[in-house]
Amino acid sequence: MTTQRQAYLKRGYSRIGGWLFPYSARFIDSLLELQLEADVRGSVGEIGVHHGKLFILLALGRRAGEAAFAIDVFGDQHLNRDDSGSGDREIFLNNTRRWLGSDSESLNVLQRSSLDVRPEEILERNGPVRLASIDGGHTEDCVINDLTLVQSVLAPKGVVILDDHFNEFWPEVSSGVARYLLDPGARLRPFAITPNKTYFAAAEDVAFYRRSLRSRNDYYYEKTARLLGSELDIFGTQPWTFSLKARLIKWIKATPFGPYVQALHRRLARGL
Q1: pLDDT in tens, 84-96
Q2: Quick count: other Cβ atoms within 10 Å of Cβ 148?
């Protein structure tokens, strides 16, 4: 991890307006590091950047020469049909200048609804995309549009991060994902969940990401589940995941002494 990314995760992103759980930020950082080590190449970007909280982390994970793009309606709130955010362009640009320095001048910022963005525009300005976050409109149509849009510009081994998939305040996101996944033309499949984020990749890349990210984030692994036919891993979503006592108990149970410790605990609980 670069020193700048370390500094941003430690004291930067928490000061920027927006919504990003601490563990999800760390998981995404491990995903950036994995792509760099595995020589996955391409641009990074986000639909719905707000003030840049997650976007800056993505941009700090680029190699030299890799582009970064931001799509947001910003002040054109008449285009924000579901009031799912109110990004401010000047605040966003000031935040990127602070953390990206001179690199901020090369960002490709589109002040537009993603419904009006064509794949060719992204490819012409940025090339294929290796890591993209979707946090734009929260209607079914917007979710399907954005997943389809990013699918069409994704680089080999590219990853898509979707926000608010299971947020009870935005049920349209869940139904939009379901409609997308049930479409025979959909190429993306979910492979992981962290607090308020779901991660997608092309079907042929899912096994690589599940295996690699599980080894890097095993301490926070909770369970494996299925979502509309796809097996995925869940990390860091429950409070007990961050409890040292709970993790220690889980570790002891997995050792050869586990059954004996559990039997002793049951005896003590019965007062024997």
Answers
A1: 667 789 999 999 9
A2: 16
